[in-house]
C-alpha cells in the first residue's frame, strides 16, 4: 500500500488531509424505488435479497443482486467485481446510490456505490452514499472509497492539532482553516464546498505571493555586480 500512496505523493498524515477532491458526486437525494424517476441519481436504503456472480460466454463476470427497499425490488449490477459476493451477503442492509435505469422492464442501477447500514452507525454518518460524496485523484489499487475512509478517520483525530496561520484581519469572513478542511472533504451542501474551496484557494495563492516576496527580498540583499565596461569606439566601428 505504501508504494501506491507514494505514487500520489502521499507520505505523511498531512499529505492525506491536504489531498483534496477534484469533484463530487451528489447522492444526497434519498428516496424510495417507487418514487425514483428513470435517469435520476438517488440513494436507496433497503435489504439484499440475493447476490451472485454470473459468467458470460466471453468469460466476463457480472455480479447481480436483488435489492428491496420495501417499496419495489431493484436489480443492482456490477462488472468485474466478483469479490463483492464475499463483502455483501443476503440479508445485509445497504444504502446504495446510483442512477436509476430500466432494463427488460426491471428497475436497475448499474455499478451503484454502496455502504452497509450497521447497527452501531448513526443515521447521517455515511461517507460513501446519501450525501455529497468527494471523488479524489486516484491510482491503480487506491480508490476514492479507500481514501474517503482513511481521511474520515484522520480528520477527527488531527483537526484540533492544526493551527490557522492567518490572523483575523487577513482571514476576514473566510472560514477558519480547520472548518475549511472538514468541509472540503465532507460538505453537507454545495455552499459549504464552495466556501471551503474559497478559503483553501486563498491560502495557496497567499503562500505563493509570500514566497515570491521573500525571494525578491533575498535577491535585493545580494551585492550588485559591476557593469561591463564597453569600448564605444570599437563597438561603433
Give a short synopsis of this structure.
The protein is 34% helix and 24% strand. With 237 residues, the protein is of the alpha+beta class.
What keyword list fits this structure?
single chain; alpha+beta; two-stranded antiparallel sheet; 8 strands; elongated
- What spatial order of strands do you see in the largest sheet? 2-3-4-6-5
Shape: elongated
Unreliable parts: none
Nearest-angstrom radius of gyration?
Answer: 26 Å
Terminal CA distance: 70 Å
Percentage of residues in helical conformation: 25-40%
Class from helix and strand fractions: alpha+beta
Q: Please count the helical segments.
A: 8
Mean pLDDT: 91
| Share of β-strand residues | 15-25%
Order of helices and strands: HHEEEEHEEEEHHHHH
Largest sheet: 5 strands, mixed, barrel
Number of DSSP strand runs: 8
SSE layout:
Blueprint (H helix, E strand, L loop, with lengths): L1 H6 L5 H5 L5 E4 L14 E15 L5 E8 L4 E7 L4 H4 L5 E11 L2 E5 L2 E4 L15 E4 L8 H15 L9 H4 L5 H9 L4 H32 L10 H5 L1
Helix pairs in contact: 6-7
Describe the structure.
This protein has about 240 residues and is of the alpha+beta class. It is about 35% helix and about 25% strand. It has eight helices and eight strands, in the order ααββββαββββααααα. The strands form two sheets. The chain has a five-stranded mixed beta barrel. β5 and β6 form a beta hairpin. α6 crosses α7. The longest helix has about 30 residues.
Amino acid at each position: 500500500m505504501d508504494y501506491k500512496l507514494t505514487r500520489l505523493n502521499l507520505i505523511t498524515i498531512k499529505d492525506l488531509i491536504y489531498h483534496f477532491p477534484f469533484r463530487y458526486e451528489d447522492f444526497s437525494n434519498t428516496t424510495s424505488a417507487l418514487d425514483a424517476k428513470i435517469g435520476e441519481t438517488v440513494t436507496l436504503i433497503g435489504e439484499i435479497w440475493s447476490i451472485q456472480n454470473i459468467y458470460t460466454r466471453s468469460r466476463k463476470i457480472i455480479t447481480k443482486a436483488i435489492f428491496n427497499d420495501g417499496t419495489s425490488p431493484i436489480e443492482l449490477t456490477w462488472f468485474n467485481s466478483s469479490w463483492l459476493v464475499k463483502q455483501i451477503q443476503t440479508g445485509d442492509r445497504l444504502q446504495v446510490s446510483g442512477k436509476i435505469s430500466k432494463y427488460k422492464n426491471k428497475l436497475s442501477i448499474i455499478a451503484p456505490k454502496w455502504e452497509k447500514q450497521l447497527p452501531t452507525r448513526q443515521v447521517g454518518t455515511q461517507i460513501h452514499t446519501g450525501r455529497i460524496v468527494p471523488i479524489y485523484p486516484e491510482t491503480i489499487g487506491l480508490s476514492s472509497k479507500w481514501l474517503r475512509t482513511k481521511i474520515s478517520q484522520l480528520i477527527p483525530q488531527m483537526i484540533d492539532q492544526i493551527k490557522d496561520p492567518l490572523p483575523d484581519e487577513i482571514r476576514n469572513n473566510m472560514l477558519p482553516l480547520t472548518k475549511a478542511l472538514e468541509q472540503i472533504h465532507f460538505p453537507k451542501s454545495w455552499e459549504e464546498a464552495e466556501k471551503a474551496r474559497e478559503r483553501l484557494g486563498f491560502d495557496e495563492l497567499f503562500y505563493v505571493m509570500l514566497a515570491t516576496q521573500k525571494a525578491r527580498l533575498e535577491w535585493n540583499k545580494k551585492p550588485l555586480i559591476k557593469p561591463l565596461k564597453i569600448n564605444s569606439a570599437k563597438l561603433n566601428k
